[in-house]
Every structure is written in structure tokens, then in C-alpha cells.
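R.M. (postdoc): so does anyone remember the format we settled on? I'll just put the C-alpha cells first.
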């Protein structure tokens, strides 16, 4: 069986592998009929049978195809006053991952539109660079620091120094579930998607698409806080709704996405598993890495992923790719929620614990309704997030 570890324990180890630019050996594979369900389905009792479970999964998955709705969180605030003369450092674990670069770009643009001076730093998956950047942020007198997917545990001493200097540190996606308090002292807020939502939707699609008879391989990345959360949510949903389905898990550290190791591992996995029907990389960055292996396998494999990045969405739209599902949680919603938290902290206010970010399923039924080449929130999700947050913040300064 694949060994399980608290996600807090694996964060530093996973990214230490990233520093060395070698993949930690992949965890032992497991085939799991799994545990209990979460918020997407009723966990009070098991499904009555395979047919009922497949029907439930299909209803949940298909129900998530529709555009989203927005509920405002928090009271209006005087952003112009809060932003005046302020400087913010955005420290990313690596901007080589497209979605992290997108988040950083959107956050920076929104802060700058209200007159905040922004410095972006790419730690290149190196904790030493991240620690050095935190030291520079402190010495420069930054008003706040935003950690873009940097596990705070890696730079806890520098965060403590920032706390002593009165500099608020905001983490992103460290808890992987809204409303969970960050563990590292000095991290005053964490803005996160609820990663159980896309994980369960991916599982629902797998169950539905395979008619309750599928065999899936999911790629995780144990150095990321969301990885164990998504693993558990997928396990729970499969066990709840499809006990006859099989799902196994393989670890893939971030550097392996770029150096060919993940592609090679996937080729071996696909060749050795004659019954495999579905592949579930939990991040789009992995999906791009395994695409050549899927194409070379000679198998009819269906791929479902999460992040709704344009490169993967375009593959889905092409109709010729193995990608049949991409779950999108609006990146503008998340990015602007991070900005809203920053503004509130700069104003001396408390930030909301949960911005209520939800997700939409994209598949062949609705991908033709949008332009997949660039994420446009109105087009993709039916919401103008900039306009919604501007109602709370007032007009931008330029």
C-alpha cells in the first residue's frame, strides 16, 4: 500500500526534492477501493449499488457544468486609503508552472491598479532563494508579503522575523481548505480554493464515464499542501459511489514535470497496466507532461485534470486529445480574493475566512461555448470578478 503521511510532514520533503532538481522516488503504487465521502455527496450511508452510485456521480458531475454564481464576502472598504504608499512582495515557489505565473500576474495587476508598489520574486523551487527573498522583503520595509504556493514551513524563521517587523505574511493554498488556520506563526491569513471540490468532481466524472467499471491512475505531488487533500477526497468519493472501481496513486514531484521523468514514468505505467481506462493528474501542469506518454501508449485512455489552464483547455476543445475533462475554479476569483485579503490587512481589518470559491466542469458538452485560448471569467464562468470586487473596493487609481 502507498504510505500515507500528514500533509504538513511531506511539504518540506517534497520541495527539498524540487531544490535538488531530482524527483524523489515515487511512492509505492496502491490500488484502492477507498473511504467515506465529503461535501459533494451525502456521506451518511453507502450507495445502494453500482448503478445508483454511477447515477449519483453522473448527476453531481453534470450539475457542475453550468456557469457559476457569485456571493460577495466582506464589507466595503476604503482601498485608496489602505493602498497609499504601500509596497507588497509576491514570492512564488516557481513561475515555471503556468497557473502560478497567472496568479502572480493577476494579483500584481490588481494591487498596482490601486497604487501599490509590487515586487515579484520567483524562488525557482529553491527554499534558499525563498528565504533570501523574505529577508530582502523585510529589509526593504515591505508592507506585506504574499506567498504564492510557497509552503510557509520552508521559511518559518524568516516569517517570524517579518512578524517581529510588523509585516503581515499571507499564504495561498497552504491549507487547501478555506477556514483552516495556518500553522506557521506570522502567517496571518491563507487564501485557498476548496480543493475537495475539484477532486470529487474528477472522481465523479471517472465513475460516470466508466459506468462504474473503470481503472484510474491519479498523479499526485506530495510536496504540495493540496495533494493529500485531493487524494483523500478522490478516495472517499470512489469508495462511496463506486466500490467496484479501482483507483491508484503515483507521486510526481514538481521538477519531474519538466525534466522528462514524469513522462517516462507515465510511459512505463501505461505499458504495464493493461486494464487502465482513466488518468487523473491533479494539476494541469502534470497533464501537459504526460500528454506524449498517453499518445504513445496505443491505449484508449481518458484524461481528466484540474486548473483549466488554456493549454489543456485547448487540448480538450480540439477533440483529438485524450483530455476529456478539465475542472476550473476561477483563477480571477482566487487571485482577487488574495488581493482583497491583502487590502483588508493593510487597512488593519480582518479578512474573510472563506471567499466561497466554487468550480465548473468543462467537457465536450460545454467547451464549445467558450474561447479556450485565454481565461476570461465572464466567458468561462459567467461572472465579472473585477467588477464584483470593485464594488467593495471603489474605483481604481489608474
Amino acid at each position: 500500500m502507498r504510505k500515507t503521511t500528514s500533509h504538513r510532514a511531506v511539504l518540506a520533503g517534497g520541495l527539498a526534492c524540487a531544490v535538488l532538481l531530482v524527483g524523489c522516488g515515487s511512492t509505492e503504487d496502491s490500488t484502492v477501493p477507498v473511504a467515506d465521502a465529503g461535501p459533494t455527496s451525502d456521506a451518511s450511508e453507502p450507495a445502494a449499488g453500482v448503478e445508483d452510485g454511477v447515477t449519483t456521480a453522473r448527476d453531481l458531475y453534470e450539475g457542475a457544468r453550468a456557469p457559476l454564481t457569485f456571493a460577495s464576502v466582506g464589507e466595503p472598504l476604503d482601498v485608496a486609503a489602505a493602498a497609499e504608499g504601500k509596497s507588497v512582495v509576491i514570492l512564488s515557489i516557481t513561475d515555471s508552472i503556468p497557473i502560478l505565473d497567472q496568479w502572480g500576474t493577476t494579483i500584481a495587476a490588481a494591487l498596482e491598479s490601486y497604487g501599490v508598489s509590487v515586487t515579484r520574486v520567483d524562488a525557482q523551487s529553491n527554499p534558499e532563494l525563498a528565504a533570501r527573498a523574505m529577508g530582502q522583503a523585510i529589509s526593504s520595509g515591505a508592507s506585506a508579503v504574499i506567498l504564492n504556493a510557497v509552503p510557509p514551513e520552508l521559511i518559518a524563521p524568516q516569517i517570524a522575523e517579518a512578524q517581529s517587523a510588523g509585516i503581515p505574511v499571507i499564504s495561498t493554498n497552504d491549507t487547501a481548505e478555506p477556514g483552516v488556520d495556518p500553522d506557521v506563526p506570522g502567517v496571518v491569513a491563507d487564501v485557498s480554493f476548496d480543493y475537495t471540490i475539484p477532486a470529487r468532481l474528477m472522481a465523479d466524472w471517472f465513475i460516470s464515464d466508466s459506468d462504474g467499471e473503470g481503472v484510474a491512475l491519479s498523479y499526485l505531488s506530495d510536496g504540495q499542501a493540496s495533494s493529500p487533500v485531493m487524494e483523500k477526497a478522490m478516495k472517499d468519493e470512489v469508495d462511496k459511489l463506486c466500490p467496484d472501481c479501482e483507483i491508484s496513486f503515483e507521486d510526481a514531484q514538481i521538477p519531474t514535470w519538466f525534466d522528462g521523468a514524469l513522462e517516462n514514468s507515465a510511459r512505463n505505467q501505461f505499458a504495464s497496466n493493461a486494464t487502465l481506462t482513466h488518468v487523473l493528474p491533479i494539476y494541469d501542469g502534470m497533464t501537459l507532461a504526460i500528454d506524449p506518454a498517453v499518445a504513445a501508449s496505443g491505449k484508449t485512455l481518458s484524461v481528466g485534470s484540474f486548473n483549466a489552464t488554456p493549454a489543456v483547455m485547448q487540448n480538450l476543445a480540439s477533440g483529438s486529445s485524450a483530455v476529456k475533462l478539465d475542472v476550473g475554479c476561477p483563477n480571477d476569483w482566487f487571485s482577487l480574493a488574495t488581493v482583497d485579503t491583502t487590502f483588508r490587512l493593510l487597512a488593519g481589518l480582518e479578512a474573510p475566512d472563506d471567499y466561497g470559491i466554487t468550480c465548473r466542469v468543462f467537457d465536450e458538452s460545454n467547451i464549445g461555448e467558450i474561447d479556450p485560448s485565454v481565461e476570461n471569467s465572464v466567458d468561462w464562468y459567467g461572472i465579472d470578478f473585477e467588477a464584483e470586487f470593485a464594488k467593495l473596493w471603489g474605483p481604481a487609481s489608474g
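R.M.: ...and that's the designed sequence above, right after the C-alpha cells. Also worth knowing: The CA atoms of residues 344 and 351 lie 6 Å apart. The mean pLDDT is 88.
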